[in-house]
Write a structure and sequence with these properties.
The protein has about 350 residues and is α+β, with helices and mostly antiparallel strands. The chain has helices spanning about 1-40, 50-85, 85-90, 95-135, 235-240, 250-265, 270-295, 305-330, 335-360; strands spanning about 145-150, 150-160, 160-170, 175-185, 190-200, 205-215, 220-230. The protein is about 60% helix and about 20% strand. The chain has a seven-stranded antiparallel β-sheet, covered by helices on one side.
């Protein structure tokens, strides 16, 4: 009998989570679709392109919203079994409030790890495809930059035509082993510049140990100089900002290849923040389920669904802004970034622990 009741709790709880995810996905898809249509309206993209891109972008958004989806799903499930008297039946068969809480919260915790290990690598690849596809149609120069195993690649428009820049790797404010191809307005190669190091702290790049090859009458003439200056649309801050997108980095990559990613130029602080943010997800799911269970079981009376979910919504807003505020403190070096990520988890742990003690007495 215990196994049947256990399966009933887990199956029905997960069904509520799935329905909530499906509803969130549908609304998010509709809202994002308007943005994609606006982006593609002046391009020659296929008519289905906005729908396809919206479809592959939303799953990463769902993962970000998952703690709140779990929270409302848990509230929905608990209030339902409470209002239809199933909770009393469960207690008759020896399932206390604490035992029900542990089953639901542990299910959420394990679900969080499954999402990190299985779903997150898929969604990160989908976001990467999303960004690369949009960059092909982008009218904004910000999209014309990529960073992969072959190094950093930049394409920018300049007064003389176009410029393609490739670098082996970035090191703080410098790019190492840089090659710059200069094209005229007819897309003809006019010059090629090689530099062992380029300082990109500002948009006035300083090239060192430079070899300049100018093409004239189908012949290259080479000049070697110690320093050379060029003006770019990019500086260190702008390039660094473009790659601070945790959605394109998977949990598996961060766990197995973090050191390699640092070696090829990823910002170590950014990777540390991304890793700990992902590690906190299962714990957030556990605590949000616990909080919803406490709210639903703290009173024995029947709840009015609308009023109860308004309270839940206000609590979610408070948690969201507290989490965002804590992260902002970490990013501005007011507190360590790891503490900033885990502070909301610690705070929620305290409140839910007190709440669980209360519902255990009922």
């Amino acid at each position: 009998m215990n196994s049947i009741i256990f399966n009933y709790l887990v199956r029905n709880f997960l069904s509520k989570v799935f329905i909530a995810i499906l509803v969130t996905y549908s609304f998010s898809l509709i809202l994002n679709l308007f943005e994609e249509i606006e982006f593609f309206k002046e391009s020659d993209a296929d008519i289905l392109q906005p729908l396809i891109l919206s479809s592959i972008f939303i799953p990463s958004l769902i993962i970000k919203l998952l703690p709140f989806i779990i929270f409302f799903s848990s509230m929905w499930f608990i209030t339902k079994i409470k209002n239809n008297k199933d909770l009393l039946v469960l207690k008759v068969y020896g399932f206390s409030n604490l035992k029900i809480f542990l089953i639901l919260a542990t299910t959420s915790f394990l679900l969080g790890w499954l999402i990190l290990i299985i779903a997150n690598p898929i969604t990160s690849s989908m976001v990467m495809y999303y960004e690369k596809t949009k960059s092909q149609y982008a009218r904004d120069i910000d999209h014309l930059i990529t960073f992969n195993k072959n190094g950093l690649w930049i394409k920018e428009n300049v007064d003389q035509g176009e410029r393609i820049i490739t670098a082996e790797k970035p090191e703080m404010y410098d790019l190492i082993n840089v090659t710059i191809f200069q094209f005229n307005n007819d897309y003809e190669l006019t010059s090629k510049i090689f530099a062992k190091k380029v300082n990109i702290r500002t948009k006035n790049w300083v090239l060192e140990d430079v070899i300049i090859s100018n093409l004239k009458d189908e012949n290259f003439s080479k000049n070697k100089v110690e320093k050379f200056l060029i003006d770019s649309n990019y500086d260190y801050a702008k390039i660094n900002t473009l790659f601070n997108n945790a959605d394109t980095v998977s949990f598996i990559d961060l766990t197995l290849n973090k050191n390699k990613m640092v070696e090829i130029g990823y910002n170590e602080t950014f990777l540390k923040e991304s890793l700990h943010s992902m590690l906190s997800i299962p714990f957030f799911l556990f605590l949000m389920t616990a909080l919803a269970t406490v709210l639903a079981m703290v009173s024995l009376r029947r709840y009015e669904g609308f009023k109860f979910f308004i309270i839940g919504f206000l609590i979610s807003v408070i948690i969201y802004y507290f989490k965002d505020f804590s992260l902002a403190l970490g990013r501005t070096d007011r507190i360590p970034i790891i503490l900033a990520i885990w502070s909301p988890v610690l705070a929620l742990s305290f409140f839910t622990f007190v709440g669980v003690l209360q519902i255990n007495e009922k």
